[in-house]
Amino acid sequence: MKKRKWHLGLEPGDLLQAKKLATRIVSAAQKEFGVERAALYLLNPNYGDLEMEACLGVAAAVRRKRLVPGQGLAGWVASRGISARADLQKSTLGLGSGGSEMAAPMSEGENLIGVLVVGTRKKNFFSEGQEADLERMAHQASRWLSLAWRVAGTSEESRRSAALAEVGAAIGAEETPEAILNRVAREASRLSGAKLASIFLLDPQKKELSLEVCLGGSAAYRKQAPIEIAETALGYVVRRGRPISVRDVRSSPHDPHTDRVQEEGLVSVLAVPLVEKKEGIGVLCVATAETRRFPDAEIRLLEGLAGLAAAALGRSRMSGRLDRTEEELRNRERLSSLGMLAAEVAHEVRNPLAVIRMLWHTAIRGLPTSEAQGRDLHLIESKLAQMNGILDRVLNLARSADPEIGAVDGADLMEEVSLLTRTKLSAARIQVTKKVPARGEAMIRGDRPQLEQAVLNLVLNAVEAMPKGGELKLGVQSREENILLTVQDSGRGMPKEIAERLYEPFLSRRPGGTGLGMALVRRTVEAHGGTLKVDSQPGKGTRVEIRLPAWSGTRD
Ligand code: ADP
Ligand code: MG
Fold first, then answer.
1. Is 337 exposed, middle or buried (0-12, 13-18, 19+ CB in 10 A)?
2. Do 433 and 539 share a structural domain?
3. Nearest atom (ligand 1) to Cα of 337
4. Residue 421 Cα, ligand 2 centroid: separation in angstroms?
5. Is 160 in the pocket of ligand 1 (CB under 6 A)?
6. What is the pLDDT of residue 1?
7. Nearest partner of 67 among 57, 77, 81, 58, judged by Cα
8. pLDDT of 2 above 50
9. What residues make up the domain containing 137?
């Protein structure tokens, strides 16, 4: 049999545009075999079906139709991996009845990448020799196409890896999870030229994906209900940790998200997983207005972006936890200060009130009054009694803040305080050194929670005095009948005017300070029968020493 001469008519420049290359191949095939119709299908590795990449003489409806392997002549060829020709009742290319069709597989190494098909209305048109020609043509076309993809891949890849590094740095600079996700969506849509970029996060029960961020979507898209992960494309992405791309949503199987993308008037979608510590936590999607086959390099790029997002999310969730413990510390300080404040106020108000009540009784005694005036006077009297009752209750509460004496292990106490402040200290780049005796060797006679709060206040002050980081020394020492607790920082220290009035309530030199911390420390220490000493050198640091009675084995 005589081999027919043919060539693809390609130029090196075609390698730079895979899409145009496919059209060239189709047109070469059409010309070569003298047929009306020719098409090149590519295998979508996600769904395993065939999508038309380029065609000539084929109606739009046929163009959009996806072929399942085994369906039509092209599908048959794809599933068998060998070429075929046939006179058909119903052809792949919509020839109606009575035409002829011929198809050959395209592959890259072992893998099928697509099918090249030609067809005509004429019956019994193709010969065995032509089939062999088509096979060779398909073979050569595959090599050109994979070369083109590789060329596209490498040049894109270098451009994109630069972009990725840039984006990574930018994402790292964002602080809140919202800012990070927004940034990622923005970069994803910019890098893939998408009209829509969205991020879904998996709920903690791992049942649904909820839209978290959306750029370029309509109100309807933004208001969409959460997507179940069972039997949905996005669910697959997050469960399996694998990307899915849909080249044309109009011809893909029904799916909540794919359908919604179609309602947006968009065509191609790529969805990649957000993976944190090997677990899928969400999905990043981009959708384009024109039909696109997302090349591997681009899928990897978006996966990289999604990875950055997941890592940054994890990090910011962790620092969210850090913020919470700091908030807790601050609240503890505020609450204990508040208790003290209330007691102070109650105490201050009670004395003048007692005087008012006494004078009041003397003043109204024997005073001639009308019935109405008598009622008013009586009312005032009962209100004064009521106020006194309130103050009594506040003072009783405050009195219950009298120390509940027991044996407190000094080493344990320091340990607890440094545990409580650990994250705060390391975030503030403060080095902690502890000098504490073994457990049970420095036992204090005192109230554990109160002492803990006092030392905590000292540590918090020390942290505030070292905004650029520094050194914090925590010490516990046994000294005769006493236990010394020391907190020493390398911070800014305080000027003499502050040091002299340190224990005055409301004396604070920092924004957001209450000025009650040191007052509370002093009150606690005095209630324990201890003493407090502060040495501070401006610019060098501050050392606070609490001297407390040692536990003698009895409660009185
Ligand atoms: P607050 O911490 O709410 O300001 P405090 O009573 O705890 O109230 O402290 C009062 C002030 O004393 C602080 O505002 C600060 O100016 C100063 N101060 C306390 N501890 C230190 C320290 N370790 N180093 C420097 N200044 C301190
Ligand atoms: Mg303070």
1. buried
2. yes
3. 3
4. 14
5. no
6. 42
7. 77
8. no
9. 12-151
